[in-house]
Amino acid sequence: MTCPQTSLKTLNTFGLSICAERIVYATNTETLIESWQAHKEKPWLLMGGGSNVLFLDDFEGTVVVNKLTGISVDQTKDDWLIHCAAGENWHDFVQFTIKKGMAGLENLALIPGTVGSAPIQNIGAYGVELKDVCEYVDILDLNRNHSLRLTNAECLFGYRESIFKHQYQQGYVITAVGFRLAKEWQPNLSYGPLKAVETSLTTPQSIFDKVCEIRRSKLPDPAKIGNAGSFFKNPIIPTQDAEVIKLRYPDAPFYPQSEGEVKIAAGWLIDQAGLKGYVANRAGVHPQQALVLINLGHAQPEDLISMAKYVRDTVYKQFAIWLEPEVRFIGRQGEVNAVETLS
Ligand SMILES: Cc1cc2nc3c(=O)[nH]c(=O)nc-3n(C[C@H](O)[C@H](O)[C@H](O)COP(=O)(O)OP(=O)(O)OC[C@H]3O[C@@H](n4cnc5c(N)ncnc54)[C@H](O)[C@@H]3O)c2cc1C
């Protein structure tokens, strides 16, 4: 279907040619409420940068693009307190803080999307997660036209998890995020590639630059190759299962979790299954970064779904581990269960 007025092609980083019934750009909360009141009887979806979604079909309802902007900065003796509206671009926000001499977000540079989406899956990279710097999240209850503020603890952050995927999903939007950044800066160089060049990373700006450099060399730019970053989460498995894998693959990358569990790199599993660079129809597994599924140009949703199924089944056959998508699947009527879609 062609839909020049309501195409979502430039609003999802997979670059899929999907249509919505209506697209609304919300620069204030009144527009959010009005649009919800007018169209909530049909599917209604709030979007940021579209960098964590896979549309399975045309969307039979209203897509609202979050354009709430504004940043304000306060401080205590020890900390910077930053309040940022949810529609601000995440990377621009990180850059803003570094330029203003407020360190702490440099490891999270160049992650696509908006500030408001960052708490939803507790974005993380290079040894830092949003939960480490988030003070609070402001949400709007669209049915009651009522705002509430959740503390960091109330957000129930976990690995790619938060309360915003559960209790506060339907009928709520994130309108702003509060950050607390310590004035006494402690670099986090725990992640391998940063550790390797530790001595040259003496300022927040140098870490920011290094993270951008590494990311640009490793990850496909969605402006050139459609993708949504890591397609699958890194599975967390029982330690005894990891021991079995270690016998066959002594170099397998495991990361200790809570007692009795370890995390294993999903990209490594896909690579070991021989799928790096694998191509079928108009979709593929990125040749440098196996965790990233790509649109080879003019892909249809079914090309990416078939690819994701194939990757998931192949990894299961070799390792008896089911990969779970990190990307959110959006059907005609709204979000659908990604695991069920691929089963
Ligand atoms: C190249 C690339 C690299 C990436 N690297 C990383 C990485 O290193 N670490 C990482 O964690 N992620 C990474 N991602 C994933 C993605 O950037 C993050 O998940 C990001 O936070 C998504 O933001 P978005 O605004 O694009 O969300 P969208 O895709 O627009 O939305 C995602 C979901 O959140 C909902 N949503 C969006 N905004 C709101 C709001 N204000 N209130 C309520 N619900 C909302 C949407 O309805 C949807 O269900 C990467 C993606 C790409 C393309």
From TrEMBL:
PROSITE patterns: FAD_PCMH (PS51387)
EC number: 1.3.1.98
Annotated catalytic residues: 160, 230, 326
Principal location: cytoplasm
Pfam family, one: MurB_C
GO molecular function: UDP-N-acetylmuramate dehydrogenase activity
Record carries keyword Amino-acid biosynthesis: no
HAMAP family the record matches: MurB
Its job: Cell wall formation.
Family: Belongs to the MurB family.
The protein's name: UDP-N-acetylenolpyruvoylglucosamine reductase
Species for this entry: Rosenbergiella gaditana
Encoding gene, per UniProt annotation: murB
